[in-house]
Structure formats: structure tokens, C-alpha cells
């Protein structure tokens, strides 16, 4: 059994991670920590009543080292890089949920996150945790940077076209709509119920921090620099992300060609389903699946994907990465 600590256990991705690990045959949650919300975890999250009675404590590195082999680090951006180096020095394996180890271009990190990076050395050592695209780099890694939720969905939607040079590497537009849990548990004016209920709001126009993350992934898959525009929206539903990606083909592709390209690219992937029609967010709620579909329209290719932001966009993908790092069946604990 691998012993797993969840640091940042009182947040949305923390509890989602506990839920998944309670079903895992080879992993046991041994330690939970948070900053302000401490106490019995089933009192913090009523849905865990009768299933988990662990205490959520203030982080104690000595105890962490004694009781854990792997850490799922569910801390906010900028906070994580203050904790992860010590965990790595202690020999722990870490899957980090924040953006602190995702961007290899540290200038881009400092520009989009508006903070100096304080753990530059470990960025180069981190594997980017999108298994369907970078599995071989995750195997054997001590630190995995779990991707952002929007980049996960959007890049799985276009990867088969980028990989084979089927689309232009500039002019791509990604349009995504996320449920409110994507913003975490901290209250905000935008997510306050009277504002968000029955509402749909664009934000981060031209400035969202997932734009350089998507460009990094797309460029690696394409093998050449890719430039794109990303526009996020937040909607009045709990969980899920629908991404629609508009791109220009480099050659004529019929819908049958597209179906063949996608089916071939994802034929061995357990968590990517290629559909024959556009997907809906509820298809994948509570699961680690990403559903994709691409179609030719008026000289463009329009690609769609759906994921659950808390599962394939965060905790599910983190457990998938943990399974790869630990040599378990990649789907263990996941539905
Ligand atoms: N929500 C989502 O859909 C996704 C989130 N992510 C990323 O996952 C990480 C966690 O997100 P999420 O669970 O939504 O966030 P939440 O805001 O819901 O939870 C954050 C957790 O971090 C703890 N925390 C906050 N600040 C500090 C601090 N300064 N020191 C120690 N602990 C702290 C909180 O503790 P306490 O409550 O006790 O203060 C809480 O346990 C973030 O990096 C986020 O960007 C990634 C993909 C998707
Ligand atoms: C709706 C909403 O607010 N979403 C978050 C993205 C959450 C996420 O998955 O990304 P990170 O891990 O990079 O935080 C945002 O736009 O900042």
C-alpha cells in the first residue's frame, strides 16, 4: 500500500482526492492538512460521514515524513512552491495541483502569475502530468505538475490534429465554459450566488494564465511553436468544462477523415472517448473521462471536449499520475 498525504485537504480538490482514494485498492490516505479549516474531515465535509474520520491538521513536516510516501499538494498557486521543495528534499513523491511547476518558461510564469518564482531549480525536474500526451515523462518522476483544468480539456480536443500537422500553428481560438467549482472554495464577488446564478460571464480576456500553458502543451505536441487565443467563461453550474476550439486545416479533411484521425490517436486511452457528435458536460460529471469530437465546418475544423474540472481537470488526473509514478494500473481508483 502506498501512503498518501493530502495537503490542502479542506478545499474542493482536496475532498475530491479523498473521495477517489477511498476507492483505491493500493493507496491509503494517512494524513490531511489545511491552513484554517482543521478538525475531523467528516465534519468539514458531511459527504464523508461514515467513510473517513481522519483529522485535518496544520501541516507538520516531521509527521508528514513519518506517515506518507506520496503527497497530493492541493495548495493555491504561489503557495505551493513554498512547500514543495521541502517535500522533495524529504524524498516524498509529489503531485502538485498548482501552476507553480507547469510553465517551463519562467518569464511567462512571472508575467502571468505576477510573482517571482522561488523554486526555479525544481521546475526543470517536474514532469507535465497530462498522461495521454506525455506519459513516458511521468513514469519515474518525483515531481509531477498536474495541468490546469482548461488546458487539459482544450489540448486533448486538438492534440490529434496538432501532432500530425493537420492544422495551422497560429490563429487557433479556444473558447471554454467552466462550472463554478473551478474557482475553488474561496468566496468572490463573481461567484456569489445572486451574481452567478442563471448567469454566464466571460473573464480574463486576453490575459488568462492558462493561455501560455496551452501554448506550451500545443507546441510540444506539434513539435513547433504554436500561438493561440484562449477565452474562459464561468457559468451557473457546479462542475464541468466545455471547450470549443476553432482551427484552420492545412489540407482538406472530411468528417470521416477526422473520425479516423481521432480514433487512431486515442485508441489505447482509457479516459478519452471519441464521440460522433458534440459532447455535453453532464456526460462526464464525476468521472475521469474526457469526451472529444471534431467536425469540418465552412473551411474550419471545430473541436469540442468536455471534462469534469475537479476530476480529469484536477484530482482524477492527479491519481492517474500517481498511479503511473507508482507503477499501478493507471485507472486504479478512477471511474
Ligand atoms: N478547483 C478546480 O477545479 C481546480 C483547481 N486546481 C488547482 O488545485 C489547487 C487547489 O484548488 P482548490 O481545491 O479548488 O482550492 P480551494 O481554495 O478550494 O482549497 C485550497 C486549499 O489550500 C489551503 N490553503 C490555502 N492557502 C494556504 C496557505 N497559504 N497555506 C497553506 N494552505 C493553504 C486551504 O486551506 P484552508 O481552507 O484551511 O484555508 C485549502 O485546503 C489550486 O492550485 C488550484 O489552482 C487545478 C485544477 C482544477
Ligand atoms: C472557473 C475558474 O475560476 N477557473 C480557474 C481555473 C481553475 C484551474 O483548474 O486551473 P488552475 O489549476 O490553474 O487553477 C481560473 O480561471 O482561474
From TrEMBL:
GO cellular component, one term: cytoplasm
Residue ranges of every copy of the Semialdehyde dehydrogenase NAD-binding domain listed in the record: 3-141
Family matches, as PROSITE patterns: ARGC
UniProt xrefs under Pfam families: Semialdhyde_dh (PF01118), Semialdhyde_dhC_1 (PF22698)
InterPro entries: AGPR, AGPR_AS, AGPR_dimerisation_dom, AGPR_type-1, NAD(P)-bd_dom_sf, Semialdehyde_DH_NAD-bd
Annotated PANTHER family: N-ACETYL-GAMMA-GLUTAMYL-PHOSPHATE REDUCTASE, CHLOROPLASTIC-RELATED, N-ACETYL-GAMMA-GLUTAMYL-PHOSPHATE REDUCTASE, CHLOROPLASTIC-RELATED-RELATED
Functional note: Catalyzes the NADPH-dependent reduction of N-acetyl-5-glutamyl phosphate to yield N-acetyl-L-glutamate 5-semialdehyde.
Protein name: N-acetyl-gamma-glutamyl-phosphate reductase
Source organism per UniProt: Anaerohalosphaera lusitana
Gene from which the chain derives: argC
